[in-house]
Amino acid sequence: MQIMALELETITTEVAPQVWARTIELALAPLNNQNMLWIAIPLLIATLFMTLYFGRYKREELGWNTAFGNTMVFLFVALNLIKEMYQQGGSLEILFENRLYLLLTVGLMAAGVLLMFVTYFHLLPKRLAFFLFSAPPINVAVYVAMAIVYADVPTDYMTVLAGVLFLILILVIAKILQLFLKLMGLEYRVKLVSAGPVEGITEGEGFKQRGTGNANKESRRNRGNR
Predict the structure, then answer these.
(1) Using an 8 Å Cβ cutoff, are 170 and 140 in contact?
(2) DSSP state, 122?
(3) Pick the residue with more confidence: 1 or 140?
(4) pTM of the entire structure?
(5) For 134, phi and psi rounded to 5 degrees?
C-alpha cells in the first residue's frame, strides 16, 4: 500500500505537472514557428468542421473511403517535414545525420502505408477503425509530429502522454460543441417514412398474402381451362 501511495504521489506531484506543461507547449508550438502555423490552421479548421458535421448528422458514419483518405495524411505530412528539414539545414544531409528526424519521417511514411493497407482491406472492426481514422486522432498525431520538427518539442514519453491528453481535450471540446448544436435544435433528425407494408400487416405477412393471392389466381385460370 505504501508503494502504491508513493507512486500515486509521484504521478500527481511530478508527472502530471510535466505532462500538462508539455501539453501547453504543444498547443503553443505554432506560435514558436510560423511555418507550422500555416499547416496547423487547416488541421484545426478541418477537425472543427468534421466535428460539427457529425454532431449534426448523428446517423451518418465516417465511411471506409473517408478513413482511407485520412490515412494518406501521414504521407503528405512526412513529405512536408522533409521539406522543412531541408530548409532548416540547407540540404537533405540533415535528414540522414539526425537519426530522430530520419526515424520520424520514415515512421510516418510506414504508418501511412500500413494504415492505408488496413483501411483498404477493412482489417479492423468498423467502429474501431472509424474512430482511429477519424479527423481528431489523425490530426492530433500529425500535429505532434510537426511540433517535434518545427518547434523542437522533445521526443520522450512526456510528449506521448501530452499528445494523448491533447487528443482527450480535443474530443471533450468536440462533445461540447455537439451538445451545443443539440441544445440549439440544430441536430438533424431523420424522419423514417415507410410506404411498404400496410398498417396492421407485417412485411412477412404481406409476402404471404401476395403469394396466396397469386396462387388463387392460378387456380382460377386452371378451372376456366377445364
Answers:
(1) yes
(2) T
(3) 140
(4) 0.73
(5) -80, 175
